[in-house]
Design brief:
mainly alpha, 2 domains, globular, 69% helix, Arc Repressor Mutant, subunit A, 8 helices, Rna Polymerase Sigma Factor, Chain: A
Length: 173
């Protein structure tokens, strides 16, 4: 993964793909997806791994945990688009249990982020959630809400500025 992240090594990515693709497909199939859909999800996950390799931080997560989290998020997106209930437990096989202190730290950060999002105006929160959690483009948000693009961009910019202010010092703790 580090070779993929640092030098965009295609051979290393091929090995990653060969290792994780069958495992991801098995997990996605076990959670109820159809064969074709599972293959699409795996392809999208591995494409995301390639595109977002620069975001991988071995200090924050193991490679397997990072990739399985991407897969879980992608599968949830697919399930939501189909308006099916999200399975409670998708059964991802982590190679090792996470460190309890790291879990607590992530939960605390998540709580602070939720509180900071709650401090935004409903309009700002809505467009930020659509853009970052819903992975919608500005055009998609415009189509969804009917708002002008300038309004959407302004709300996102102002909301992000407020989040930065609310979360200032979070990484220093």
């Amino acid at each position: 993964m580090l070779a993929v992240r640092d030098t965009r090594d295609r051979v290393a990515f091929g090995r990653l793909f060969d290792h994780f693709a069958p495992r991801l497909k098995a997990v996605v199939l076990r959670s109820g997806s159809a064969e074709g859909q599972a293959e699409e999800i795996v392809q999208e996950v591995m494409l995301t791994v390639w595109r977002k390799a620069a975001q991988f931080d071995p200090e924050r997560a193991q490679v397997s945990s990072w990739i399985y989290q991407i897969a879980r998020n992608r599968q949830i997106d697919v399930v939501r688009k189909e308006n099916r209930p999200v399975p409670e437990e998708l059964g991802y096989e982590a190679e090792a249990e996470p460190d309890a202190s790291r879990v607590i730290a992530v939960e605390e950060e998540s709580g602070k982020l939720r509180a900071a999002l709650g401090a935004l105006t409903p309009e700002q929160r809505s467009v930020i959630e659509k853009a970052y959690f819903g992975e919608m483009t500005h055009q998609d948000i415009r189509d969804d809400t009917g708002l002008p693009l300038g309004t959407i961009k302004s709300r996102i910019r102002l909301g992000l500025e407020r989040l930065r202010h609310e979360l200032k010092g979070l990484r220093d703790e």
